[in-house]
């Protein structure tokens, strides 16, 4: 009986985690609307209990620069950075690509709290997992 209960619990946990899924969102665009679209999808995925990992590179990396002024997006009147901060607060992993800091003249200390430089080997290993869905903006 204990084995059956354990097995049922394990199968249920596996089903729940498979349902939630893994989402990798890459944002490279400098377009505020494009950035907002990617972050809105990531936000909805987090709300649906998915594990979300975001990689910001090129102009997309600017979203993570502390104090960066950006236009607000309707209908919620928030900036991409405010959306990103909400994602961080709700458990998303957010990184800037390994090329962003050395090629933008910025340092890790210039980034908002919670955003870290990515390790390319870690990103590659994550992307090779069969359960990871990817989106690029």
UniProtKB/TrEMBL annotation:
Keywords: Signal. It comes from the Bacteria. InterPro entries: DsrEFH-like. Residues 1-20 form the signal peptide. Gene3D superfamilies: DsrEFH-like. The keyword Signal applies. This is DsrE/DsrF-like family protein. It comes from Rhodoferax ferrireducens.
């Amino acid at each position: 009986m204990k084995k059956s209960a354990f097995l049922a619990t394990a199968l249920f946990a596996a089903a729940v985690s498979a349902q939630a899924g893994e989402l990798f969102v890459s944002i490279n665009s400098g377009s505020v609307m494009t950035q907002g679209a990617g972050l809105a999808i990531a936000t909805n995925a987090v709300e649906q209990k998915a594990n979300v990992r975001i990689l910001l590179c090129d102009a997309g990396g600017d979203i993570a620069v502390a104090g960066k002024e950006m236009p607000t997006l309707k209908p919620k009147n928030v900036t991409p950075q405010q959306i990103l901060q909400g994602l961080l607060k709700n458990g998303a992993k957010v990184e800037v690509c390994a090329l962003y800091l050395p090629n933008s003249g910025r340092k890790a200390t210039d980034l908002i709290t919670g955003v870290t430089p990515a390790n390319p080997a870690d990103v590659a290993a994550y992307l090779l997992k069969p359960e990871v869905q990817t989106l690029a903006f």
